[in-house]
Design brief:
396 residues; 9 strands; alpha/beta; globular; Rossmann fold; 11% strand; two-stranded antiparallel sheet
């Protein structure tokens, strides 16, 4: 490569990075999670406490400076600690701290514990990475929430399993898959993380929305940037949610709160707003991909209630307490299909592992917190590898 080629490539990259930053700022890089303590790896059985900022659309701030971000993202409230798990970033808003490690008990895991470790970039990967990609390396960035970050050991997350599957597929490339998932985030922040790391010479980006809460969280973030008021639950419904969440935090946080809210406030049109906001984020990601020359893939993660049978009695009990019908409790299934249809209309490549998970011989989610377990991560990685195989073949 000649010096002139290097300069031209550098100039193009700078221009694209600037457009990425503008896109991220324009659409917004925020999310309000349902939990005040969103470090789900540590909150083994802690009750969910819903954020008291019930209407982010009424906040006066229009930019996500650090003070505003701390109000919107509870995990940043601990950023003052000597070694915080989450850090503020002007582009991505919330990232995992680099070179961070902690271990906590996890009875459902065969090892009885889970070790959460980040590398030099804050990715959930046991090895450091060089920002300068070597020749012959195909680099994939994975963005998502806590299901992507993983309530598993690093090597068990679907991103790291995917890396091993691709490297064992007999292709003449070395695959490097970077797990940039951050618990408590949603598609607007996925866009921010992509913008933050777009300079890593990526070949593919996989975004993994979780259908149990990403739609509502997208509503909140979209409302913040559009300054659109968010309808409030009635006093009785609000107290009901608070009481039920005390004893059934995982079921509520990973699907039923969203279902309850969208059912009770159907006239507000929040489900449509959330789906539209998600698709807008993924479309912007695809546009960045066009500018940089990488493929964007959306891997849609279903809820435990859609695929597992081992804890249905609990789900039905909580749905009964919320006076939700069976169809209303499984609203995530309808939302997943709507999102896929919208992605189709935008010609965005998608993967849906739901059928494979339903056919699995064992549960795909922990009962402790309703996050993907080792089996779930393995199946998701396998389905992604199978789906992107033709894309990799065409690239050759």
């Amino acid at each position: 490569m000649s010096p002139g080629d290097v300069r031209d490539r550098s100039t193009v990259r700078c221009r694209v990075l600037f457009r990425c930053w503008i896109s991220a700022v324009t659409i917004g890089l925020a999310v309000i999670t349902l939990q005040v303590a969103n470090d789900r790896l540590c909150a083994k059985a802690a009750p969910v406490r819903f954020v008291r900022i019930s209407d982010p659309g009424q906040m006066t701030s229009e930019i996500l400076d650090e003070d505003t971000a701390r109000l919107l993202f509870p995990m940043l409230a601990l950023a003052h600690k000597k070694k915080p798990r989450h850090v503020y970033d002007p582009t991505a808003v919330v990232l995992l701290s680099p070179n961070y490690e902690f271990e906590h008990p996890w009875d459902e895991h065969t090892t009885g514990k889970i070790v959460s470790r980040t590398n030099n970039f804050g990715f959930r990967k046991d090895t450091d990475i060089d920002p300068l990609k070597r020749d012959g390396v195909y680099r994939i960035l994975v963005v998502g929430d806590s299901h992507t970050e993983g309530v598993v050991h690093n090597h068990e997350s679907f991103a790291n399993v995917l890396e091993r599957l691709l490297n064992g597929s007999g292709q003449d490339l070395e695959f490097e898959v970077l797990n940039a998932g951050v618990g408590g985030t949603e598609p607007h922040l996925y866009l921010g993380v992509l913008s933050r790391y777009a300079s890593l010479d990526l070949d593919m980006v996989i975004a993994a929305p979780f259908m149990g809460n990403d739609v509502y969280e997208s509503v909140l973030m979209d409302s913040f940037f559009r300054k659109k008021s968010v309808m409030k639950l009635g006093d009785w419904d609000g107290k009901l949610v608070e009481n039920v969440s005390k004893n059934h935090a995982p079921v509520m946080a990973q699907g039923l709160y969203q279902a309850f809210r969208f059912t009770r406030l159907k006239s507000a049109g929040e489900s449509d707003q959330g789906i539209s906001a998600m698709v807008e984020c993924f479309s912007r990601m695809a546009k960045i991909g066009e500018d940089f020359g990488f493929q964007v893939v959306v891997a849609v993660i279903p809820t435990k209630s859609e695929v597992d049978r081992d804890d249905l009695a609990r789900v039905k009990k909580v749905a009964g307490l919320l006076t939700l019908s069976e169809d209303e409790a499984l609203l995530s299934k309808t939302l997943r299909r709507k999102l896929i249809a919208a992605l189709e209309s935008e010609s965005i490549f998608w993967v849906d592992p739901t059928r494979a998970m339903v056919r699995a011989s064992a549960p795909c989610y922990w009962t402790t917190d309703y996050h993907l377990n080792v089996q779930g991560h393995r199946i998701l990685a396998r389905e992604i590898a199978r789906a992107i195989g033709p894309l990799l073949a065409r690239r050759k």
